Amino acid sequence: MGEIVLAAKVTHVPTMLMSEQEGSIKGKRQSAIEGHYEIARRAKALGATTVVICDTHWVINAGFHINANKHFEGLFTSNEFPQFIQDLPYNYRGNPELGDAIAKAAMDKGTHMLAHHLDSLELEYGTLVPMRFMSRKHEMKVVSIAAWCTVHDHQESRKVGEAIREAIEASDEKVLLVASGSLSHKIWANKDYAANNGTFTISSEFNRQMDLHVLDMWQRGDHATFLKMLSEYADFCCGEGSMHDTAMLYGALGWDEYAANCEVVTEYFPSSGTGQTNVIFPVQ
After folding, report:
1. Of 1, 78, 95, 217, which one has the greatest count of Cβ atoms within 10 A?
2. How many whole angstroms separate alpha carbon 255 and alpha carbon 253?
3. Cα–Cα dist 76/91, whole Å
4. How far is CA 22 from the centre of its chain?
5. Residue 262 and residue 238: Cα distance in Å, rounded?
6. pLDDT at 143
7. CB-based burial label for 115 (10 Å; 0-12, 13-18, 19+)
8. Neighbours of 33 (CB within 10 A)
9. Which long-range contacts (CB under 8 A, 24 or more apart) does 225-232 make?
10. Is 65 helix (H, G, I), strand (E, B) or coil?
11. Three-state DSSP string of 125-174
């Protein structure tokens, strides 16, 4: 019987890649990188064979979708930030059997979901950035799930999370489940970016205070209250991908019955106006 052995909410900011390159950002995101290393080390210790990543950089407008190819290889350049992520090489094994099983489990719940096996369907950087660092500490097969959902509600994404767990438990896989996305996500307006040292600042004090409050709730295990405010938090604080990655994560962990105390492994930091962190969600 398979199981989710570890879960996490992680950052995927492009400045993590730039932090390893010469320039003004060199070394500035090392704490975020170390957080990814720590998550991968713990997943390895728990015997994780596959990582399932709910990616808020894969936008979808109808249905739910999984990149369940057997192998991922190529060079990635971000169409959003080509000056930040360009010609990024990647080479990872996939897990088509698990991807297909998740899609079937979702369909059985009445949630339309398709798994795809296409060499031309690239991974997005919400998957590639975490894998860039996690794979250095532990090699895992990869399944990527679209989590930038434009017309879906959180209850549907909750069902996707439930399908993720059911499919894993029916398999032989030990899985690291990752929600890849920020907390608040109000990027600085272009005209205000430079004047506010945008790379290293938050665009809204209200958003920062809400982010810190949410992190406190997570660390205290007050997930039931958080879920009551999830939709409004995602709306008012511009949650990345409307925080469908987070709804999927909670769906897999038991929704409002989940009560574990989370562990922040990267201290909260602002990036380009947004709120970022790495948080471990222990599996009960």
Report:
1. 95
2. 6
3. 11
4. 27
5. 23
6. 99
7. buried
8. 21
9. 227/255, 227/256, 230/154, 231/153, 231/154
10. strand
11. HHHHHHHHHHHHHCCCEEEEEEEEECCCCHHHHHHHHHHHHHHHHCCCCE
pLDDT, tens digit, 9 for 90 and up, residues 73-129: 999 999 998 989 999 999 999 999 999 999 999 999 999 999 999 999 999 999 999
pTM (2 decimals)? 0.98
Residues 137-174: tens digit of each pLDDT = 999 999 999 999 999 999 999 999 999 999 999 999 99
Whether 111 contacts 155, CB under 8 Å = no
Q: Which two tokens stand for residue 26?
A: 């060199």
Nearest-angstrom CA–CA distance, 195 and 49: 45
pLDDT at 198: 86
From residue 221, how far is each of 10, 54, 218, 280 by CA, in Å?
A: 18, 22, 5, 12
Instruction: Calculate the average pLDDT of the chain.
Output: 97
* Cα-based angle 275, 148, 77 (whole degrees, multiple of 5): 80
Count other Cβ atoms within 10 Å, centred on residue 268.
Answer: 18
Range of the domain at 222: 3-281
Count Cβ atoms below 10 Å from residue 68 Cβ, excluding itself: 25
What residues contact 130, with CB distance under 8 A and at least 6 apart? 10, 12, 36, 53, 178, 180
CA distances to 53, 126, 172, 242 from 151, in Å? 20, 20, 33, 10
CATH of residue 91's domain is 3.40.830.10
